[in-house]
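Example complex used in Figure S2.
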Amino acid sequence: MNKNSARKSAPQHSLTHQSHVLNLPLQDTQVTREPHSHERWLVAKLMRMAGSPPIRFRLWNNDEIEPHGQPALFTVYLADPKALYALVANPNLAFGDLYSAGRLDVEGDLPELMESLYRTIHQARQKWPRWLEALWRNHAPRSTGPSEAPENIRHHYDLGNDFYRLWLDQAEMQYTCAYYERPELSLEQAQLAKLEYICRKLRLKPGMTVVEAGCGWGGLARYMARHYGVKVHAYNISEEQIAYAQAQARKQGLHTQIEYIKDDYRNIHGQYDAFVSVGMLEHVGKDNFTELSELIKRSLKPNGIALIHSIGRNRPMLMNAWIEKRIFPGAYPPSIGEIMGLCEHSDFCVLDVENLRLHYARTLSVWMERFDGAQSAITEMYDEYFTRAWRMYLAGSIAAFRAGSLQLFQVVFTHGDSNQLPVTRQDLYTFPAAPESV
Amino acid sequence: MNKNSARKSAPQHSLTHQSHVLNLPLQDTQVTREPHSHERWLVAKLMRMAGSPPIRFRLWNNDEIEPHGQPALFTVYLADPKALYALVANPNLAFGDLYSAGRLDVEGDLPELMESLYRTIHQARQKWPRWLEALWRNHAPRSTGPSEAPENIRHHYDLGNDFYRLWLDQAEMQYTCAYYERPELSLEQAQLAKLEYICRKLRLKPGMTVVEAGCGWGGLARYMARHYGVKVHAYNISEEQIAYAQAQARKQGLHTQIEYIKDDYRNIHGQYDAFVSVGMLEHVGKDNFTELSELIKRSLKPNGIALIHSIGRNRPMLMNAWIEKRIFPGAYPPSIGEIMGLCEHSDFCVLDVENLRLHYARTLSVWMERFDGAQSAITEMYDEYFTRAWRMYLAGSIAAFRAGSLQLFQVVFTHGDSNQLPVTRQDLYTFPAAPESV
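Predicted assembly (876 residues):
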């Protein structure tokens, strides 16, 4: 099937037949037989390997297996024996796939269950025997080279603006971490605060030029043009997003200040006062950091400032297999140390690193609330499998940021020999970044 | 000679006979002969290898060699031919040693000359042939293991409190980078602002406990006890400094809140709400980062916050050979990437990295001004060689921070699984950190 022609008629997703990829045995008939004793043993073993989370298992015949030595806070239901075997063989991938297919279900708050799992597994995996570590290991992420990147990005970002509009903020369609300057902010305020905060960190002034690598629906570029009077070249390889961004810029009379360019970031040319990239680095892949480093080096004027905003890790680790395979092909959230490799390669001077991980947990919670509110519309747009998969993705992400297995870094840097530096960070905080109302 | 017994009578330094270490040929008689043509060629070659800085050379017979294609901004005087040969053979070490011995002198602002040299050499060294790189390479720094560390530290920090009192701030004898929250602050204000800023970054509250690794003259511990009502265990292996710190704490009635401990940081025990280390990491040596990481891991309560303040680099690089051999034995300023190695090892969550390098350039400038004002007293206390060596060290350090070859990092982190995080950094900037007057 030609994806491009298909996309013109209706939004597509490629999530339905994932069970082939996992070799997940299909189960078409309802199972009510008694579980074998070895199946009960497998459940208990699985829970011990996961660090004994407070989870009750309910099996296909409604038999329940309680957690060891503590009350259950959540119940996980398995619809059939083959689901159990899939879970034991490859829990990273199967938990999400089975949930998506409705063959695994959860009673209790899904993000809280996932956070609990992340925390106990994080402790427990240090004691896993080597064979188990090998069996359950995540596979290397997909390539993010120039020929694969477009397909990776289309898989996620071209799901349709109508879909994202259902649950992202109404202000600027920001699909990255918001900045909750005050806890009571609305998502819209917090997303605009994020845009403002980034402009401040870049110390933008009227007349400056900015290049943006990976511009999403173009909200940051428009914010910069509108509020800071700068000229922006904004790159993105997602066709849907660029079309939306261009239309918005024209509507708002900002099209003379912004050029949205449907092209790979690797083709950025020219020199700018600022380089900014929000939520792209995690799709770049660490094999491409050196190239990106050199690109920033040549794109930034001698006294320019660069900012990279990216999901990251406390230490190098592969992306969760299910997220990487089903949701974000090729994703790799780097540690600060890995981002420093990028900076060191070009002798950049790192001025400021900030970790906003709890802001992302909160952002995702609001997204999930809105997503849940729009479930029937989304299921109509795609199907039940898709809706459940995305629910798992949002819940798992909330959990990962809360449990500290994902981080959100903003890194600000300059050329190594520039002395035109912001001397303190006080100017970032002189007045609120969020608008009083949206 | 037994150093300990010697130290009791008068402050000592071990800088006088450094020419043996360098194998610097001594020159006792004044040389006035004409330079040979190959000596003039060597000067020109040396300048080209250094990236053609705007320096005029005046040789022993007052012959002058102008810089190529530009007016001279500085003059370097060489007193004898052997000084030239030493400079060509090992410029990193010889420049400082010859200056200390008065066999190399400078007309023009010494920090500006050094900055100019740092900048041109930084560019030029990328084109050095391999043999030159090998010839001029810095040697590995001295060991900083438990048996060498005391001697390394004594070499520098036990020069005598009377010496440091002549040119450090009068407020808290801070021998680390000040925080120039506003450019017009006095050194005293800026040093107190630094102490306040660190307390804020640690989010100290009354009744908390703090452990400090490498406490200098104890000023931070006293500031914390006085202004934040915390209890501090402060470690240092410099006898002179600990004695001073204890006396000050008693005088100020803070001795019930602070325990100054004359011991290696490796012997820290107990668990604390905060771990802080200001200006120690650059003496720790990267071979000991793993051990330090594990120490912080076990010393920090589950929701504690740690702060490391250290001189650093944009990328891994050995310390300037002269500084490491003559001034700071064993010093190694790490890159953020190397500091991240320490953090990743214990799965720490890095919240905040700030680079204050221009603050250190300014701090050092004020120190040098005061040092220059006290030159005759210092020369009387030690000798001319010592005074000139320290002048070179201060000037070279100003230059290194201005040229971006040194950085000053403050890194704030927590355990990876703590969610008791400061959510934003606004609280650091709500009111001035510096006192209105000192």
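Chain B has 19 helices and eleven strands. The longest strand of chain B covers residues 300-312.
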